[in-house]
Specification:
This protein is α/β, with parallel strands linked by helices. The chain has two domains: 143 residues; 310 residues, Rossmann fold (3-Layer(aba) Sandwich). Helix content is 55%, strand content 15%.
């Protein structure tokens, strides 16, 4: 009997005919699986890093973050399990690649199951991450609340009476005497940025609050201001060195007396806030109310020309000369004159407080003296100056100084740093006064974090034509 082998032979031939294409398809699928696995592992690694970073950022307060820590551990376990599954898939792939002829169907079925399982785990992890993101605001709010509620961690405005007597009471009374305070307020904040408006609001609110108190300490600073004040205490107040009785040092700045104003030497007179530094560097600087040279120390670094410093008080003038000597300043022109709206002599009222003199008699105890006075316009024309910056702190005579500088301001449009804290009139009127000239100036109110309410408030005026 002849054995019929035709069917097996046909089956064998068929299998042999499809084997190459099956292997090719299997290898292609294997490559895709490996690629999917690598992408999956990269996604897992990114999620891992993201979770670790979120976890690290929330460890500021252990008690607040305990729940977050537990959740992180759970997610970390999920990630570890996912990595183990990924390794298992990788091993399975290797096995499938070595046995493609026999395991093709099983490979397709098993990997699909594993991949779908991994996708579900990833979706679960993403949901957990969303939960953590939702917890972030709650944690942040809770942390800030805790900070606010810790009294020993707050910076308090201590002994406010000196500033209250010198500036605040007169400032508040001046506001009360205005018949059109609402109109003045709107003129002041018109076209100003939100930060300037917020500064104005804080100054007015705090001045009114302190004017109702007699003496003592008051809690007025925001959390951000307290952080800045702590930094200033650590990096400014604690770093002033007495070298001898008439030589003091902060960083590389030398002064003949221990009088270092942080608004000048720590905050650089607000110079780093300006948008016209390139224009200023190419031109001269007018330093009105130069005191003992602290302003000149800073301003001299911002120009390739000269700083023309005006100080009317003889004692301050002599100390300024020592400041020039100690710091080897070579681009300072020092004038023992006042700046106003006319040329001649003017009456000054000198207080017992070293740096305080005024065109106005405050309480009758000041010493009356006569000093030489000139105008910025006359000085600029006489010396053929190109002016890039005018800085003023002339104890409430800013309006007169501006009147005497109208030609220079109108023709050259220098950047202006005008002190406006000496009176309510200066605070509310100087900006509209300059704005009415229509010289394309941008106005801002600048006041660094300081242990006071009004002092060192500056009106910044920069011509947009000179922006960098």
């Amino acid at each position: 009997m002849v054995e019929n082998t035709s069917k097996p032979n046909k089956l064998y031939s068929f299998l042999m005919s499809i084997l190459p294409s099956s292997k090719k398809n299997v290898m292609k699928l294997s490559d895709e699986i490996v690629g999917n696995r690598q992408a999956l592992e990269e996604q897992i690694e990114r999620l891992d890093k993201s979770l670790e970073e979120n976890y690290r950022l929330r460890l500021e307060d252990r008690a607040v973050f305990e729940e977050l820590g537990k959740r992180y551990n759970e997610i970390n376990d999920e990630i570890s399990l996912l990595k183990e599954k990924s390794n298992e898939i990788h091993s399975t792939l290797k096995l499938y690649q070595d046995n493609t002829d026999n395991l093709f169907s099983d490979l397709k079925t098993d990997f699909k199951s594993e991949f779908e399982s991994s996708i579900k785990r990833l979706e679960s992890l993403q949901a957990a991450i969303n939960d953590m993101a939702g917890m972030q605001k709650t944690i942040s709010d809770t942390t800030n609340m805790i900070r606010i509620q810790i009294p020993f961690d707050r910076v308090i405005y201590q002994n406010f009476k000196p500033e209250k007597d010198r500036f605040i009471d007169g400032f508040v009374k001046g506001m009360q005497d205005f018949e059109n305070i609402a109109e003045k307020y709107m003129s002041l904040i018109k076209d100003m940025d939100s930060e300037s408006v917020e500064t104005v609001e804080r100054i007015i609110n705090r001045a009114r609050r302190i004017s109702k108190l007699d003496n003592g300490d008051v809690d007025i600073y925001t959390y951000e201001e307290q952080q800045e004040l702590r930094q200033m205490f650590d990096h400014f107040d604690k770093n002033i060195v007495e070298l001898n009785s008439d030589l003091y040092c902060y960083k590389n700045y030398f002064m003949p007396i221990n009088y270092f104003n942080p608004s000048v030497l720590y905050y650089y007179h607000g110079m780093n806030e300006l948008k016209t530094l390139k224009y200023i560097r190419q031109n001269n600087i007018i330093d009105a109310g130069a005191f003992i040279g602290d302003s000149a120390l800073i301003l001299s670094k911002y120009t390739d020309k000269k700083v023309h410093s005006f100080e009317a008080m003889e004692n301050n003038y002599e100390l300024f000369k020592k400041t020039i000597e100690y710091n080897k300043l070579e681009n300072i022109v020092l004038e023992n004159k006042a700046l106003g709206d006319y040329t001649g002599q003017i009456t000054f009222y000198e207080s017992e407080i070293m740096d305080e003199c005024s065109y106005i008699q405050v309480d009758g105890t000041e010493k009356e003296i006569m000093v030489d006075c000139t105008t910025i316009d006359e000085y600029v024309e006489k010396n053929s100056l190109k002016v890039g910056l005018i800085k003023t702190d002339v104890e409430g005579a800013e309006k007169n100084l501006i009147k005497g500088a109208m030609k220079t301001i109108t023709e050259q449009r220098p950047t202006l740093l005008i002190s406006i804290y000496h009176s309510a009139e200066d605070f509310f009127d100087i900006k509209p006064m300059l704005e009415s000239l229509n010289l394309n100036y941008q106005f801002r109110i600048y006041r660094p974090a300081m242990m006071n309410v009004l002092t060192d408030t500056i009106l910044i005026a920069e011509c947009r034509d000179h922006f960098e």
